[in-house]
Design brief:
single chain; 690 residues; 4-stranded antiparallel β-sheet; 1% helix; elongated
Length: 690
Amino acid sequence: NNPPTIDNWQTIDDPSLDPGRQFFQVTAIKTYSFLPTTLLASFLQDEGGIDGEFSMYDTANSFAKTTPADLQGLPIRSFEVINTSTIFVGAGVPASNATASTNGIYRSTDSGVSWSEIIDTDLSSTVNTNEFAYDSAQDILYAAAEDGLFRLLDATTATNWERCNSFTSSGPGSGNEEVFTVAVDLSTGALYAASGRDVYRSNDNCDSWSRIYEGLDSEITSTLFFDALVQGSNTGFYALEENDDVLTSPSYVLWNGFLQMVNILELVNKGTSDLSVTISLFDINGVEQSETTLDISAQNQRDVIVNDLTGFSADSYGLLRLTFSSANLDGRMFFYRTLDSYQSYEFAYALPLSNARDGTSYVAFNTFNPSLNAADSGDQVLNWLSIVNLSSETESFEINRYGLDGTLLATQNIGVQAFGRTDIDGGHGEGDNVVGYNEIVPADPSAQYKAELVRYGQRTDSTFAFAFPLVSTSAEDEHWVEISAGGGAQNWLEVQNIGADAQNVNLYFYDNNGNLVSLSNAALGARSGVHLDASAVLGAGQSGAVHIQGTDDNDVLVAQSMFYFRDSSGSIEAMYGSQPPSSLGGTRWGSWNLFLNAYNWLRLFNTGDSTADVVVTVYNGNNTPTERAFALAPKSGTDLGLHETSSFATSVDTYGSVKVEGSNLLTGLLRLRPTQSGGIDFAAPTAVRP
């Protein structure tokens, strides 16, 4: 749509016409819904003499102007009105020309009639405020200033300011970078600030930060605003879409002491400088039990045995909160179960570190026993759904369970306390041979939470044939996801329409050689799904990718690709599920691990219509990179064995990071442990993401 145009402009005020004010600049213009007939503006002059004013115009009375005498002559750079009575203004010129009489923060509690300067030890006498932002839900006022970012808690009544933490280092009140602009997303409470070319996000009221945007060398962000996050800089206006794959601080992951599982936290530093991470362990009731801080060297990985952390408990579960100061952190929690002193494993799987989510999400369940061996007919597939509340107060959730044909099977309502976790039956209560999905609906759409489902293949003797997780996701109108018959696997593609209307879906199956090996259409009824044998259309041992595309451009599709490894008798040796990524291509990071004699297969597929130039850089424990560059034709892929030591300078019983660069790439890394007899002990995918 074309934007509206305004052909006729009317000048309502021009102080620059006054003698001595020819260099007057408008610094801000605002209106507020609770002041429906008031337009507010600020002015400053720092050339040809310092001057300025704060003006209020009555739009219902020919823009009659009121200028508070207390502020006359002050260079007003910014202001914020937080209610009908309370107004803050920031007066200031750059430090080179500043004095205590030109700079400061002033407040009025009588609708702008009278003003007083705020004197506070955390504010310098020459504080120069570029912009204010007010979080009305929490009553916090932020001031973006030349010498840092400041916050005022209980802004309606308080006057004691606090210096926020630095964007790039830890420590209370450590931030002294110039902050050009600040904004609050009132729908989530997230805080955004810009310093130089970078934009940062905080989920904890400026205590910690993650960089979400790195601009050009000469780029300076001067404004941020919502509904969607919009950035204004010296290069133009842009909508900043945050990538859910990029972690923001704090990030969260679950721990689980049941089933004698060993929990290994794998932390990856994607950056070129060391990274400090603080790990806080919360118990089943959401009570913090311990805090540990560690450093991760540049472009490397560090593992933490969570079972050894204070507060970890067998036959219980909880949450880890990770706090960090850079968007360069990635990683996952690995869960291992063994009953023979680590000679073999009943299962091993990984849950990725992830940001909190909000809104409705979806995750599939399946109670079919995948074994083809009649002796395993009594085995059971358990589906446990975990709901974690990451909000500061108790939240309620409704879980609706639908079958493959769209039938509503069950509805359950639960309450989860702050930072608490509740595990519920995610589908096995429906009986054997039932498939479908769970819909998780928070009562408060802005509530922050995580939801994950783990399927356990439990044998009649209470041992396990497999276990693997699926993370709840949003629905989209299309997906790319990997497919493979490698290692003799059977690969089932599961596609679900979560919409209330029927949906036609096109499915394009490609092999790694760039061949379109199958094209099919699925007519999915409301809330119904389909399962397709992807391995049947691939050649033996072949891999590739499938493009799932709804014909109606509605965000109603959820999908996953399931892989089953069986022994000669048909019993399940291992299995895993792969979910579509939220983005494709660019610079992406993962990590490899050759402990336990594991194979590490890096899977790459070019989803684009043109050749992709790919660069893979493997970092070993000594941070010595091995680089491999090649081209991938359109709709083709390759599987690289990072365990092949002669090709990538890796070695047994070591781990490290891997960087992948290239456009339109679907990326993933499969960690697979073979048995001595040539079977599969476990198979676990790990993310390769921005």
